[in-house]
Structure formats: C-alpha cells, structure tokens
Amino acid sequence: MKIINRRFDLDIINLKQNLLTLLKEVKKEHKDALIAMETQDFDMSKRIVETDKEIRTVAESLTITAIWSIAQQNPFATDLRTIIGYMNIIRDLERISNYAKNLSKFNVKYKPEIKLTSQLSGLMKKVFKMMDLIGESINENDINKAYQAAEYDIDIDNRFRESMKNIVNMLKINKNNDQLSQYTSTMQQLKYIERLGDHLVNICETIVYIIKGKFYDLSSTKISE
C-alpha cells in the first residue's frame, strides 16, 4: 500500500508541475497576442490561432492522465480533492486560452489603432499579475495568494468600466462609420478579457477548495489577507 501511495503522490506532483507549465503557456499565449497587436504583427496573430489547438490538446491529455490516476489508485479524500481540483483548473485554463485566439483573430481582421490596443493592453496587464499570483499560490500551496489574486478581479472590473467609457467617448468624437465596427469589436474584446478575469477567480476558488475542502465565493466580497 505504501508503494502505491508513493506512486500516487508522484502522480499528483507531476500533474501539478504540468498544470503550472500549462498556466505559463496560456499566459505566454496572451502576452504574445498582445505584442502582436501592439506591433501589428498579423502573421504572429495567425500563429497564435494555430497554437491554441496545441494547448487544447495538452489540456485534454492532462485531464485523461488525472482520470487514469484516480481509476488506477485508491486515493485518500484529500488526494482525490486535489486531483479533482487540478482537473477543474485545467478546464478553466483551456477556456481562458480561447481569449488569446479571439484577440488574435480580432487583430488580423480589424488591424486596430494604437489608441484602441492601449485600452486592451492596460486591462491585460492586470490579468497577467493575477495569473502570476495564481501560479505562486499553486506552486507554494499558499491560500493567501489565492485570495490576493481574487482581489485583482476588482481592479480588472474597474479598469474594464473605465476602458469602455473611453471607447464610448472616442465614438462620440469620431463618427466615421468605417471605423464603427473596429470600435464595437474592441469593446467586445474588453468584455472577453473581463470574463477571463472571472475564470481566474474560479481558479482561485478551486485552490481554496483544494486547501480547505470547501468552496467559497470569492467574487462577491473583498477577501482580506
């Protein structure tokens, strides 16, 4: 039994490391999507759309590995909770990767002006900080960093509303019908990024579940450290 338990412990460690690698890849995908917009590198955007398929394949492979680990072993309740939690995080990361693809398609189609991409980049920088805290929380099993990451969603929501107002004001000044679709599509991308923040909050809630064994709604109230 001890040998089996040690093997299962190794499975959990390996899954955790692969999950952290997936998180880094998803973050890199979004950073690259942002760079492609800021530099108007449309070929790079097209490559990111293709790379998204690879991330989906990795996420599916990790999920299958997690399911097999459960099926082949007889895990304790805490270990089972960890595996299920990691599976939930992998699912959220797979969904989050879609937003990088959306940004890349948007860049290729509309070739947005710098004043519009700056609104998107300002919001994404807050998302990157949230991702960093989540990575640290998972790696160190630190529940406080999960709380801190969840609080960043408040900043994301505030910046989202500010950016939406900025674009509405731009529309009032510039009433060129040819650019209307570019502006409205930028607003849609902002909404996608705001939803991305919601998925990251879901991950924070899952981390708390793994550590505490209970689900807490971290989106409704500000959590103190």
Automatic annotation (TrEMBL):
Subcellular location: Cytoplasm
A matching Pfam family: PhoU
Domain of life where this protein originates: Bacteria
Domain PhoU: 22-105, 123-206
Keyword terms: Cytoplasm, Phosphate transport, Transport
Quaternary structure (record): Homodimer.
Function of the protein: Plays a role in the regulation of phosphate uptake.
PANTHER family, A to Z: PHOSPHATE-SPECIFIC TRANSPORT SYSTEM ACCESSORY PROTEIN PHOU
Family: Belongs to the PhoU family.
NCBIfam families found in the cross-reference section: phoU_full
Protein name as it appears in the record: Phosphate-specific transport system accessory protein PhoU
Species, as recorded: Spiroplasma ixodetis
Source species taxonomy: Bacteria, Bacillati, Mycoplasmatota, Mollicutes, Entomoplasmatales
